[in-house]
Every structure is written in C-alpha cells, then in structure tokens.
Amino acid sequence: MSKKKTGYKGHSKTWWKGTAWDEFSKWVRIRDAIKTTGTKTHLLCCTCGKRYPAFGKGCAQAGHFVPGRHHILLFEPHGVHGQCYNDNINLKGSPQNYRDFMIRTYGIEETERIEQSRFNLTFSYTSAELEDIRDTYKELYHTLLIERNLL
After folding, report:
1. Per the structure, how many domains does the chain have?
2. Pick from 56, 38, 43, 60: nearest CA to 150
3. Which domain range does residue 38 map to?
4. CB 59 within 8 A of CB 29
5. What is the pTM for the complete model shown?
6. Residue 89 located in a structural domain
7. Confidence band, pLDDT 50/70/90 cuts, at residue 68
8. Is 29 within a domain?
9. Rounded distance between C-alpha atoms, residue 76 and residue 51, angstroms
10. Residue 5 domain flag
11. Is the pLDDT of residue 27 over 60?
12. Tens of pLDDT along 70-84?
C-alpha cells in the first residue's frame, strides 16, 4: 500500500490545485450571480441564458471558455463563467455560444487573447502559487458579499 505523495505544507500539489479551484469556482459563481441576477443564490448561464442555482444541488458550474484544466487559463477570471451542466458537459462547453458571449462581454481582442493563451500548455503552478490563488479568491468571495450587503 503506497502513501499519497505529500509536499508543500504536508499536501500534494493535486490537493492544492483542488482547494484553489474550489475557492475560484465559488468566486466565479457568486460574481456571476450578482452580475446576472443581483442575488447570491442564482445566476444566468453564460451560454444558454437560463437561470440556475449558484450553489447546491443542480447548481451551475464554473465553465471554461477554453476547455482543459492543464494550462494557464485554469484560473483566468475572464475565461471562466457560470455555466449550466448541460452546456458545460453535455455540449462540451457550447463553444459557439460561449465565444459569442465572450465577444459581447469583453470584445474581440480579449477573446482572441484568451483563445491564443491555450497554446501555453507547459505552464505549471507551484503549490505556493496555488495556496495564494486559494487565499485570494476566498477573500474576493467574502469581499463581494460584504460590498453587496449579501452576508
């Protein structure tokens, strides 16, 4: 029986990536809930426009404009938005609708910048960077709630 490899502060890099993703995903969903419905409970899917819970059973996901979880765009705030399960998983991101949303939201230049960043496939976060990402988005999540009087 082998033990899981541990490193930075006794945790594996996979663990740090997961905890960073959990906080980033929460922040994305609360950001988009506030932006699209003005609440902390529901958001509109960026690709189909339907209303979904931001948290809990059957909730929206944090869907990537550029698919994949192994490149620099994993934690790109302009490249991840609240998206329903059907569009994110079953329709593989609903790429044309997502691209249309990106252009409407950020313009063609920013959309193309994010699309081109997908080619940096050799990027790898350190555990310390992942810890910083986790802490940053945890703080940003709470800051949004406080600023909007939604606590």
Report:
1. 1
2. 38
3. 12-141
4. yes
5. 0.91
6. yes
7. confident
8. yes
9. 23
10. no
11. yes
12. 778 999 999 999 999
